[in-house]
Write a structure and sequence with these properties.
Elements lengths: L2 H4 L7 H12 L14 H23 L2
Length: 64
């Protein structure tokens, strides 16, 4: 390994990390998406429909 690789600065932006940590400590989101944007009822409905389709598919295969 040459000296140039050893002397390279970290790719992490330390100031940005500090801002994200501070925002997180205050309960804020900092340019991120969280589950609050997810419609839980819609997800439950989609899961139920998927389970029904899976059940129908497996029962159709058993009948053959």
């Amino acid at each position: 390994m040459n000296n140039n690789q050893q002397n390279q600065a970290s790719k992490t932006n330390a100031q940005q990390v500090r801002q994200q940590n501070a925002a997180s400590a205050q309960g804020q989101s900092y340019n991120t998406e969280f589950a609050s944007e997810t419609d839980a009822q819609e997800v439950r409905q989609q899961n139920q429909q998927s389970a029904q389709r899976k059940q129908q598919a497996s029962s159709n295969q058993q009948g053959q």
